[in-house]
Amino acid sequence: MNPVRLGRSDLMVSPICLGTMTFGEQVSEREAFAIMDRALERGVNFWDTAEMYAVPARAETFGATETIIGNWLAARPGVREKIVLATKVAGPSRGMPWIREGAGMTAADIVASCEGSLRRLQTDVIDLYQIHWPERHAPAFGNLYYDPAKEVTQTSIHTQLETLAQLVQQGKIRNVGLSNETPYGVHEFVRLAEQYGLPRVASVQNPYCLINRSWDNAMDESCDRLGVSLLAYSPLGVGLLTGKYDASGTTGPDAPQGTRLAYPSVQKQRWGRPEALETARLYNALAREHGLTATQLALAFCYRSWRVASTIIGVTSLAQLDENLDAWSVQLTPELLSQVDALRWKFRDPGQ
């Protein structure tokens, strides 16, 4: 895997990124250490986490993932310089009062969250500091429509950038990124950065997979023209695109135990929609028709897309990690890609 540049920054990252949100919930610290060791051995140099992890989010595991990564770094002298470390400041609490008091994300909140992440990660600097979801009201996490009547913004984008600039100047972060953003948000962050000499967004972390290609409608053009990279998360649609739910008939109580969709909170999300599973089954069957596993098709689709700079893979075992990394060598034929597009044309984006 040849490293790729994130946006117009100086960050050079592997085109596969290790997502860590299962660490501290589905994955123990010992298992997480083994996964991180193996990922590094196999050429992955890019770690992504967030202050709100582990997931599903709850007060008892808030910050647990960063703590595990910090313990791993402390136990591996010299490794910190080998990896690009990304984390995120949570946007408005969205019903998670353990993240912070109040409903917004103020400048003081950004600073406090950054300092908390630095402590838990046991590092002096964060390479890529991302806003996990917009401070303003914006459609995300399965909400399809923008509603101006719901706007309750307290901190302007300009103020957010000024705060991030202070953190850069203090040497606490190196680059900034966004997550769960819209074309308006990306354009406004870039416009203000260029106008006022503030940190320029390097990347946007949004969902991208066979059952959620909403990125392909405006975000791809916006970010390509602006020089902002896509970090694709949920490339396997929370497991729907691995085939492991194909025979269960449901993502509810009968979902395989230990999987993400066995959690009631996840079942209520976009990935738990019946049409998401029904459409995923069609892609999984298409993979098998072409002699591939469902996982190989789903990951290769992201790995080979010009739109994606780095694909974030979340795993719960060494076997899953190896399977996901091995899929890097899979090539998709023009015929198969044409059939993928035909399914998307018919069923659109049920995981949006």
Describe this structure in words.
The protein has helices at residues 29-41, 64-75, 107-121, 157-169, 183-196, 219-226, 264-267, 274-289, 294-303, 318-326, 334-347; strands at residues 4-5, 12-13, 16-19, 46-48, 84-89, 126-131, 173-179, 201-207, 229-233, 308-314. It is an alpha/beta fold and 352 residues long. It has one domain (4-239, 306-328): TIM Barrel, CATH 3.20.20.100. Strands 3-4-5-6-7-8-9-10 form an 8-stranded parallel beta barrel, surrounded by 6 helices. The protein has a two-stranded antiparallel sheet with strand order 1-2. Strand 7 (173-179), helix 5 and strand 8 form a beta-alpha-beta unit. Helix 2 (64-75) packs across helix 3 and helix 8 packs across helix 9 (294-303). The mean pLDDT is 94.
Mean pLDDT: 94
Reading the helices and strands in chain order gives EEEHEHEHEHEHEHEHHHEHH
CATH topology: the name is: TIM Barrel
- Overall morphology: globular
Number of domains: 1
> How widely separated are the two ends?
29 Å
Could you give a short description of this structure?
The chain has about 350 residues and is of the alpha/beta class.
